[in-house]
UniProtKB/TrEMBL annotation, chains A, B:
Transmembrane segments: none annotated. It comes from the Bacteria. It holds the Pfam family LacI. It comes from Paenibacillus marchantiophytorum. CDD domains: HTH_LacI, PBP1_LacI_sugar_binding-like. The keyword Metal-binding does not apply. The keyword Transcription applies. Keywords: DNA-binding, Transcription, Transcription regulation. This is Catabolite control protein A.
Length: 325, 325
DNA sequence: TTGTAAGCGTTATCAA
DNA sequence: TTGATAACGCTTACAA
């Protein structure tokens, strides 16, 4: 491995002159420049970022903490992050929490040990302990961003899609399609998030009728346990708050000889490849996952550079109309 | 930030004693141990991995170079890699080449600058230049693994699924379903890879008839340009060498009122979530992407530790029967 | 059992 | 315009 000292010797200049030249802090004589360039080429010098990091006591590494990466929702966000970090010459660490069997505290220990420049949290964590953990990070003065869903603001920047707007958009669309009896179908959605959808419904609905709420529990059979209930309640529009669930419900409805859209419209919250693949193709609310990643990365960079940044970023969802609603 | 020196002072021991104690290179007096433990707790010491790396001239960072991460094929492999690296306390860098607008040479420069412990290449790169690049890495003595498809062996470990076996399995399955006129449908598949599928076909077929080969070009309309040709040739079994293409072709066939399986069976090469979502669900050849990632990580770790490793790993594909074939 | 001192590759300070 | 020196935090001969 060729070091600064090596090329210094080879070029008959001091190491610090070369260092300053390479970091363009000084102007050197044409002659010196030539000697340095030659030595670098001849010896094949590559700077050592680890030494730089130690010297400056900061790295160019940003970590993304994510439940799992083999999931289009998370990987789309991560790709957005990667795009921005790459443009600014930062490296991207990935820590898959579900996969690694690491506790949150262990992950954070890792972050400190590695002098991580900033941390982007994606996805939901075990609520109570998580808030404590993230507050610890802030205490250590590591820049942090949390991107996913609304949560009580705790002194770190938050990014999330406007779920009330998402709900309003979706419900208005269903109304437009002459669907009047709406059901929200979800899985494990905590109450405080569900309330945003109800709020969106109220905003979209002129009169005072209420939507049906249906929670799918683990191991439930959609055909046997859910569809009959939808029919009993004369539901003609389903707003499924989870894209994969929307796909599966659509399949079950088709299998039960219910016409999608004509009999029951299905609207998906979340718009990835799988909405396009589903038959019929799903009309979906796009929550802008890639944009969420991009903005998260921009905010973490602002923090790292001690520039101003938005404490809260709310993204506007939009609807993509296909066949199912 | 608390350093070794700080706790040394606080505990009235020398820094090197603590260092050796923490790395369990020596046994210390009970009393010393207690003092050290206390100091660490009171001052909240966290070791500095960057300094360690500089000292040892090696990092615990492995880089995955991948075209894009928001793709189930790549993210599944990456997740496998992440799992193994995490277990062995290595960190995972992701570099998305398609996304970053970085040339291969620039990426490799980055690897050297950051003292990357090892590099895992996933996916296809611009062939000619890529082989040159990867050979450079080997020259620099950075452990490298290439996981994707067969290529001329060039002195670095290779991992890929057995495509001949995949083809044989698939064709045998189609024969079993009484499909006799088989077409291979593909997109951008280079000839040397296509030949494996033909070889697999030969192995599965007793007589000497040949399959039809259909290449889908950019911008082609499956309904207008492909399906008529399949029908003209009395094709009753299609082996699609790209999962997404299999999904789209299935859609087009359904739209043309052709019964999947009964009229034309569709078999997909590649088995991710999207095969399950497709209607009808696709019978697929699973190429073991996660396992490919896992084995890649294991091999890179062996290399890093200067242990023995397999130069070539060929994974056995298997078939997952669903509805379409 | 513990401590001293040098050094990993880089850069900031100060001096020339 | 350049150079000597010390320092970032940690480890490792070598010495005690």
């Amino acid at each position: 491995m060729t070091t600064l000292k090596d090329i210094a010797k080879h070029a008959n200049v001091s190491a610090c002159t070369i260092s300053r030249y390479l970091n363009s802090n000084i102007v050197v004589k044409k002659e010196t420049e030539a000697k340095i360039q030659l030595a670098i080429k001849e010896l094949g010098y590559v700077t050592n970022v680890v030494a730089k990091s130690l010297k400056h006591m900061e790295t160019f590494n940003v970590a993304v903490i994510v439940p799992k990466i083999n999931n289009l929702y998370y990987s789309e966000m991560t790709s957005g992050i990667s795009q921005i970090l790459g443009k600014h010459h930062y490296n991207l660490y990935i820590y898959e929490v579900d996969n690694l069997n690491l506790s949150e505290d262990e992950v954070l220990q890792l972050m400190r040990e590695n002098m991580i420049a900033g941390i982007i949290f994606i996805g939901l964590f075990s609520d109570v302990s998580f808030k404590e953990t993230i507050r610890n990070v802030v205490e250590w003065n590591i820049p942090v961003v949390y991107a996913n869903r609304y949560m009580d603001y705790n002194g770190f920047p938050l990014l999330y899609p406007d779920l009330v707007k998402a709900s309003k958009l979706g419900v208005e669309h269903l109304f437009l399609k002459d669907k009047r009896r709406i059901a929200f179908v979800h899985k494990n959605l905590p109450d405080h998030l569900l309330s945003y959808f109800l709020e969106g419904y109220s905003q979209a609905s002129k009169d005072e009728n209420k939507p049906m709420i249906m929670e799918i529990e683990e191991g439930m059979d959609l055909s046997k346990d859910c569809i009959p209930k939808l029919l009993q309640n004369n539901i003609d529009g389903v707003f499924v708050l989870n894209e994969m669930l929307a796909v599966n419900l659509t399949k079950a409805l088709v299998q039960a000889d219910i016409r999608i859209l004509e009999d029951i419209a299905v609207l998906s919250l979340g718009n990835s490849l799988i909405s396009e693949i589903s038959t019929p193709e799903l009309t979906s609310i796009d929550l802008q996952n890639r944009e969420l990643g991009i903005r998260s990365a921009e905010i973490i960079l602002s923090q790292i550079r001690k520039e101003a940044f938005e404490p809260i970023t709310v993204l506007e969802p939009f609807i993509v109309e296909r066949r199912s609603a």
